[in-house]
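Researcher: Here's the sequence for the chain we discussed earlier.
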Amino acid sequence: ELQIQDDGTAPPSNTCTSAVYSVVTPRLNPARPAGEWNQVEVTLKDRHLRVVWNGHLVHDIDLDDPALSANLPRTHLLYRRPNWGYIGLQNHRSLVEFRHIFIKELD
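Model: Thanks. This is the structure I predict for it:
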């Protein structure tokens, strides 16, 4: 789950925009101000996750890297997550809009 918030001035944390929510802190918080569109490119090939947010590389990680799961509860361990599943978009009690969504299967 990649977090989306209107917190562009907040320091990077595991709950800020572009975080792998409550698990991995991004390299920086690249969020644009509320009301502006964010551009996000997510690539997941095998177990490698790469996220570019508003032109900034925020994640380039191996989900099976034990260091990413150190000190996490069992429910958050990345290496235990399946290689398949749904792509979901959600919000919590506020308006959110998405546009120009493209999904491409990788070879």
